[in-house]
Amino acid sequence: MGRKAGNLYINPKKLGGIAKPCMKEMVSFLNCMALNKCKDDNCEKQKNLLSVCMNGHAEKSKSWGNINYHLQRLTRGRK
C-alpha cells in the first residue's frame, strides 16, 4: 500500500501556480447562483460567458492525463 521507494512523484496540489482558465467566469457564475438561491435563469449572462470560455479552452487544450501516471510510465522503461 502506498508508493514504492525510489519512484518519482509530484504533488499535484503544489501545481497551484498553473493558469486556471475560466476561473473568473466560473466564480462570477457561482456568485450569481448564490445570490439568486440557485436559480440559473437569473444568471444567463454569466452562464453564457462560462460556456463560451469552456468551449474555447476545450478545443485548444489536449489532455495529458495525470502527471504521476506519465512519470511512472517513463520510469518503467529505465528498469
TrEMBL record:
Name the residues that span the membrane.
none
- GO annotations of cellular component type: mitochondrion
Residue ranges the record marks as coiled coil: none
The signal peptide here is none
- Kindly list the GO molecular function terms attached to this UniProt entry: structural constituent of ribosome
Q: What are the BP-aspect GO terms?
A: mitochondrial translation
What protein name applies here?
IMS import disulfide relay-system CHCH-CHCH-like Cx9C domain-containing protein
